[in-house]
Amino acid sequence: MSDLAIRVTDLGKQYRIGAAPQRYRTLRESLKNALTAPIQRIRRGLAPTGETRPDTIWALRDVSFDVEQGQVLGVIGRNGAGKSTLLKILSRVTEPTEGEVEIHGRVGSLLEVGTGFHPELTGRENIYLNGAILGMKRTEIERKFDEIVDFSGVEKFIDTPVKRYSSGMYLRLAFAVAAHLEPQILVVDEVLAVGDAEFQRKCLGKMNAVAQEGRTVLFVSHNMSAILSLTEEAIVLDKGQIVHRAPSAEAVDHYLASGFSESGKRIWSEDEIPPSASPFRPVSISVMSGDGKDVDVFRSTEEIILEVKYKLAEPVQGLRVGLYLMSMRGEYVFTSFDTDEPERYNKFSVRPAGGYISRCTIPKDFFNDGRYAVGINASSYRVKRYFQDERVLNFTVDGIGAPGKQWSERRMGLVRPRLVWQIESIG
Amino acid sequence: MTETSLVKSDSDTIILRPSHGWSALNLGDLWHYRELIFFLTWRDLKVRYKQTVLGVAWAVIRPVVTMVIYALIFGGLANLDSEGVPYPIFTYVALLPWQLFSKAMNDAGRSMVSNRNMVTKIYFPRLVIPISTILSGLMDFMVAFVILIGMMMYYHIPATSSLLYLPLFLLLTLITALGVGLWFSAMNVYYRDVGYVLPFLTEVWKYITPVAYSAQYITGKWKIVYALNPMAGVVQGFRWALLGIELDSSALTTMLISALVAVIVLISGLFYFRRMERSFADMV
User: Fold this and answer.
1) pTM
2) Which residue is closest to A9 within chain B, CA to CA?
3) ipTM score here?
């Protein structure tokens, strides 16, 4: 028991989905509910409590796992799989609906760095304030102050109100405070998704150092290479449940292989679409060969057609529907939108309500051998991101007939273009 | 139904499980986070008058301008009785605790919603927020109090030994403000009606508190009803402690009733807040 850091038993968290579009109740509604609730309860009969009612969803259900002291555990899963809910419960921001969590040691969370930062206060003042919010004692902050400033790299502006900081400086300072919290158990959610490459490297280094010191880390990320390099073991969450727990490499493979249809087509059902996506409603996405069949294995010498079907409930201005192509390790190959061409953008500056297909063709001789993931993004630039899912489908490219195939070695790189080479003899 | 969400079995082990019904106050946890109360109070003070031209002078302008208006209307036009002391200082002495109370109640009532981003991301005892909001109101009170000292010298009103009781009445003000503030801050998370109720309630409450008039106008059995408003007791206490305005024979009873009401409001507010607290992060 002494070397156990976290024990989660049958954990569940239920949310009212009615609370999503209208986030708070008015008194009138509540009075009405108070009057009608007993009647409804009688009508429903003696339904046991905790029964799934139509207006609630289980963000987490029957989740059980242990984390040993000093272990670095990765948590992976698609959007809405329950990762954030799990971390929120572990960091005591919200209460579970059922089950139990046993935590041995002080928990520090990097759920969102910079929480409690006040724009009017200087960097120095915010270090103290944020440190206190994160649970540090003043003496502790004083002791680490120089180190924090040093790590953040904003020495020159430490007495400037943070509202004058660039977003990068702001973020670095915020992370610096959080990174010096030194809890026994560190809970990290996707902080690495922000900031420039240099900063991300610094963060990863810091996390590595934390792990080296033998402290327990729970690390949630979409970045598979970060999961692979930082964690030994990972759990895969899907629809609020743990579907797999294994050494990281195996868990990542499981995650990447699951949830994607083998046919090369993904159809969204109504309940998978968050209300915030409206008026955009994705219907399906397919990867097809040149003859229009949904498949998931291609030869690098053939074209690949990607097709997104969607509906618009009302006219949308400046809509762009785009795709991300990613390697299995999370490296981006490219991002492309259907209105990248200015003429097409002007032609579709407002898309009326109705059904649409956005289709693109990836030329032949493009990808190297391997497996690739497709993500989707539908947004109006600087207005709203309607829908985003970084991994909806994946497909395999087989390099038969690709340039250089007479040598069986593995070629580095994600693309394998057929380039024009010339060899000149100059005597 | 007294199961708590947090059981401390040894110093470093915590157990999280769903809680039902009423929760323990867990004041130990609050004590552990006392520095956060200090820092949030300090933040409020630091930020309050940033980017204002007049700065901390606003703490004086509000009560002084109100006093001038009251002196013109109630003291001058309506010629209300001010129990033997000049009307301006008679009403100013009442305005100090009143404005402390009304600001504290309003700010605390909105505090959970205005600190939403902290509440939804990080754990700390939620009580920290309304408490620090109330404390930061004390600063304005202190500044405005300096003006009062000046006025007492101007009107040649000597300080008496009853001044020693002043901290008690100040405490009663804070207890009442915190009690009411806790109720409203927890309710505001669920019902945004609170945002509309607060200004209205402040207005009404001000009229049932003897800020602009003398409590002597209230007579007979109404005195007991009147004492149910802790702020009525506070204002009479301030006038007695600072201006030496005599209290009548039933004063002790009414004071005790006021204090009792304040304590009941505070304790019920604490328990209500703790009960509602567990879903703050999901609802706010």
Assistant:
1) 0.71
2) B17
3) 0.81
